[in-house]
Design brief:
The chain is mainly beta. The chain has a single domain (2-116), classed as Jelly Rolls (Sandwich), CATH 2.60.120.10. Helices cover 0% and strands 54% of the residues. It has no helices and eleven strands. The radius of gyration is 15 Å and the shape is globular.
Length: 117
């Protein structure tokens, strides 16, 4: 399990085409990828399981806790990205609720674009 950040402060100013915004790049892959949005309500949980492929969880809103094989939970919040390798056991839970994007792909390498937390 590795922790990254994709928050605004880690982004890059984009000005091409008369644009004015900040982009935090996440991934670039030629492999197929599955992308979904997860909504954990109050006391929600993504149960303890093995990652079928490398998996990146991007916390968009709220806060919660994650763990891997060790039973120690780590607090996560908006702007955090958590990366699990294929076959790594993991769990995510939230007391107050959180919204996250999950990206699953055989060729994920978040270190290419994101800073370690």
């Amino acid at each position: 399990m590795k922790f990254y950040q994709f928050s605004k402060v880690h982004g890059k100013n984009i000005s091409q085409f008369n644009s004015k915004f900040i982009m935090s790049r996440i991934i670039n892959t030629d492999a197929s990828a599955s992308i979904g949005c997860m909504y954990l309500e109050e006391n929600g949980i993504i149960g303890y399981h093995q990652a079928v492929v490398p998996q990146l969880l991007l916390i968009l809103d709220g806060e919660g806790y994650v763990r891997n094989e060790q039973e120690q939970y780590f607090k996560v919040q908006t702007g955090d990205a958590i990366f699990w390798e294929k076959d790594e056991w993991h769990e995510t839970k939230s007391d107050k609720g959180l919204t996250a994007i999950v990206i699953e792909s055989e060729q994920l390498n978040p270190a290419t674009f994101m800073a370690l937390k």
